[in-house]
């Protein structure tokens, strides 16, 4: 009965695969209790990833498609409509599978340029979400998790060193936190993915640690929750997001955590969850929180609150006998 608070589908995300319904069906088959549908907010055309530009439809079963998006034809209006279509389909799927799984409907933010904030405000004025995830994937408007070349471009823009880019990343993250106060903070230390210090736990970077500590204190001050994201393991990191030193710092502040697989299609649903469980035990996380539509929200902007389960009880669930 584990939980994931972060997923994407090829139906509504051009760098993912599978339809939204296929992702949900796979989550059911793997024994999830709660699974969140959190497609990205519409991004400006200039902020699409290189792999998203000009992507063609991929055939499946002769007549259907895995990915319904043709980004070479996108406009700002078509991207906005795609997000609207996601919410309609998410509601349909939630109702269709209500007896088998608890589905949450939210979104994953971006934080790229001033217009991004207005996009998020507009979305939240139009719709009600169970929760949302505050993430950033860019620094100096350059994607830092796409490939090494893009990371190096961002690093050059920051002054040429990992440490300088890390500092800028956590400053931009702090701006996002202050503006949005997201209930869940996504992949807190994503910035380390392509860095030369990806496994160093930010050792010796006093300026970076000062900024991370500030951000963690701010998240704790409004009862925000950090995402434990197993995608870091899938992408070759020794530890998930966030790394152990960040988790320990947040635990000292009484910080709370949720679980996520950050899946981008059925092949990634629940991937590395056994390793994520072992990591939680090693770091000393004793309870896991999850967004619960039956719990009263403390945040008036969303419709769901949080519940929790101890890691000891989580460990006893049958899910782990079939998880990857």
From TrEMBL:
Reactions mediated catalytically: L-histidinol phosphate + H2O = L-histidinol + phosphate
EC number assigned by the record: 3.1.3.15
A Gene Ontology term for the protein's cellular component: cytoplasm
Gene3D superfamilies from the UniProt entry: Metal-dependent hydrolases
Record's signal peptide: none
GO terms for biological process, alphabetical: L-histidine biosynthetic process
Alphabetical keyword list: Amino-acid biosynthesis, Histidine biosynthesis, Hydrolase
GO MF annotation, one: histidinol-phosphatase activity
Domain PHP: start-end pairs: 5-231
Pfam families: PHP (PF02811)
Pathway(s): Amino-acid biosynthesis; L-histidine biosynthesis; L-histidine from 5-phospho-alpha-D-ribose 1-diphosphate: step 8/9
Family membership noted in the UniProt record: Belongs to the PHP hydrolase family. HisK subfamily.
Protein name as catalogued: Histidinol-phosphatase
Species of the source: Paraphaeosphaeria minitans
Lineage: Eukaryota, Fungi, Dikarya, Ascomycota, Pezizomycotina
């Amino acid at each position: 009965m584990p939980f994931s608070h972060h997923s994407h589908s090829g139906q509504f995300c051009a760098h993912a695969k599978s339809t939204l319904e296929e992702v949900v069906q796979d989550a059911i088959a793997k024994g999830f209790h709660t699974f969140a549908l959190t497609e990205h907010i519409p991004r400006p055309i200039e902020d699409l990833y290189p792999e998203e530009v000009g992507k063609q439809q991929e055939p499946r079963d002769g007549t259907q498609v895995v990915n319904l998006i043709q980004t070479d034809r996108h406009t700002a209006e078509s991207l906005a409509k795609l997000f609207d279509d996601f919410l309609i389909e998410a509601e349909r799927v939630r109702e269709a599978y209500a007896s088998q799984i608890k589905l949450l409907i939210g979104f994953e933010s971006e934080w790229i340029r001033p217009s991004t904030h207005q996009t998020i405000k507009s979305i939240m004025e139009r719709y009600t979400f169970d929760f949302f995830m505050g993430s950033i994937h860019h620094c100096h408007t350059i994607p830092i998790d796409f490939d090494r070349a893009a990371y190096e471009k961002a690093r050059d823009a920051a002054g040429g060193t990992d440490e300088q880019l890390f500092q800028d990343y956590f400053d931009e993250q702090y701006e996002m936190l202050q503006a949005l106060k997201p209930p869940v903070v996504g992949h807190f230390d994503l910035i380390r993915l392509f860095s030369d210090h990806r496994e160093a736990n930010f050792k010796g970077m006093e300026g970076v640690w000062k900024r991370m500590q500030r951000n963690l204190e701010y998240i704790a001050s409004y009862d925000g929750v950090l995402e434990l994201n197993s995608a870091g393991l899938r992408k070759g990191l020794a530890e998930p997001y966030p790394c152990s030193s960040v988790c320990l710092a947040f635990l000292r502040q009484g910080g709370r955590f949720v679980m996520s697989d950050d899946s981008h299609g059925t092949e990634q649903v629940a991937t590395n969850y056994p390793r994520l469980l072992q990591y939680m035990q090693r770091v000393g996380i004793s309870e896991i929180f999850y967004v619960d539509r039956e719990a009263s929200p403390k945040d008036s902007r969303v419709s769901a609150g949080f519940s929790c389960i101890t890691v000891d009880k989580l460990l006893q669930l049958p899910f782990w006998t079939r998880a990857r």
